[in-house]
Amino acid sequence: MPQAAPPRPARPARRRLLTAVLLLAGLAGLFAVARNDAWSLLATMADGRSLALLAVAVLANVGGLLLGLLSWRAVLDDLGPPVGLFGSARIFFCGLLGKFLPTPVFGLLAHIQLGAEYGATAGRMVTTYVVSLGITLLTACLAALGIAPAVLGGNTWWLALPVLVLLCFVVRPGLIGASVEYGARLFRRPPPTARVSARAVRVSLVLALLSWFSAGLHLWLIVLALDGPAARSLPACVGGFALATVAGTMTIVLPDGLGAREMVLVLSLSTVVPVSTAGAAAILSRLVCTVAELGTAGVMILLTRSRRARPAGAAGSTTTDPLGGKTDALPQPRR
Q1: CA torsion angle for 23, 266, 70, 61 (degrees, to 10)?
Q2: Which of 77, 68, 83 is nearest to 206 (CA)?
Q3: Could you tell me the pTM of the whole model?
Q4: What is the tens place of the pLDDT at every residue in 250-273?
């Protein structure tokens, strides 16, 4: 019986163009933030303590991004041969830059195109994207419970629904695979060829929750730099940032939820600090997140360009990522 042909890697020119578009989108996002009074706010915080707290805030957000990468990678590697840390980072962070464009299509396209370079099929990348997005949103709703009562008053009963769904996925992780298959049938798309294992789902859930806590710490550090209360502001910052990110993700027509995220952040933080301070923190949070995302993505792209191994040998040979992840078989060009 003839064997199925391995997936064709994405064309280098197409990959380079897509990466360039995403990097330009990230730079445009940084420019937009800079125009939104961010630099004038920094000028008023020129003392050593405030600048040190902002620097640590960037590192806290980078920590959240790296934990998010590991959560996403737990799903990706469970569906096929491990891609390796640097390869996974390149795919993940290039896709992350798609958030600066007013549609999630570019992020998913980056995952598919770059995943093909490492031998991952389009179906595997789409399944990873959908499953990870569901895990991210559900864990964000759980992290947001700390601030939801103060923001929403008595209308928080609906937040119990995603928490119940999350608990169901923890107890019965196979439900995630069943949900993805049902969605594929609903939209008349071919179902995924493999399901995510129970262990991978649970690992991804734990890492996603940790990523929300680390990312939320950046907002808390910003509030401290603005002389906000330390103890009372921590749950508002962690929960508020998660809630604001969910709101921004849902407004897919706006680049990175611009405006919607800030509105939710101000509502969340105004429960513990004055509205003027909450507005300043929301602007600085946008700046810190953009610098962290763009900087981390740029570093990962440079590292993978300089260190990733080139495919060599006979057809069907494998390549190795710098940190040991073996990729799927890559076809050799015809001579």
Answers
A1: 70
A2: 68
A3: 0.75
A4: 776 666 667 778 888 888 888 888
